[in-house]
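Supplementary Text 2. Reproducibility record for the structural model of the 269-residue chain.

All settings were left at their defaults, and a single model was retained for analysis rather than an ensemble. We include the record here because the model underlies the residue-level annotations in Supplementary Table 4.
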Amino acid sequence: MFRDKAPWWAYVAILLTSIGAVLPLAWLFLLSLDPNQGIASGSGVYSLKNYASVIFQSMMAQYFLNTTIVALFTVLCTLTCATLGAYAASRYRFPGRETIMIGLLLASMTPVIAVLVPLYALAAKLQLLNTYSILVIVFTAWQLPGTLWLLRSFMNSIPPELEEAALVDGCSRAGAFVRIVLPQLVPGLLAAGLIVFVYVWNEFIIAVSLAAKQDMRLVSVGLYFYLSDFGVEWGKIAAGAIVSIIPPAILFLFLQRQLIHGLSAGAVK
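Retained model, structure tokens:
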């Protein structure tokens, strides 16, 4: 393991990168405290008026509820399907296994805009527009390939001998999976779940196309409607953006160790 002291330019690079990451957020926070709604007013007068307006005088609370419901169900569906698929792809050998895995990964690289019209037409035909169901289904399908690959890599790092020992002791295959594999898969599940949650929380194109009804909007779509024909309410957009950052940021702070562990699974053998 390397113990050499990092060169001075590495510290400078890290410092500059950190400043570059923090400055936009600092500017956004100051803008959210400006009651004059000017993007560059610099009035020097600060208040929580924009936050009060966003939280108590708009439908942002409903948007947060919608986004939370969709995100949690998407995480649940994605992890359930991906865990079972990753187990099959890791533990069983069958013809075309790698071809199927690569095909799933290639399918996930298709631009959203390329399939948006067919998705909208299908959702309209099934009468699923402006429902939680269509958002959960589409988001799950979009995140499933990447999550499947991540969990498969993590699953490969779990010795199959542990399951074999459980089978010898009388466990069924399902029992060995639940009692042996799942507990060791928790860091990978937390990492994958966090990635899926953040994706749903920030998604805009699919959300605005399939759930444009006012009481069904997600947070990202709700922020967009502060841009109107009468002008742009910069202070409210900034306040809403700051508030919307809080849930993913809190999750990341609590799960950052599991995220790093899960993303690096399989990198070192």
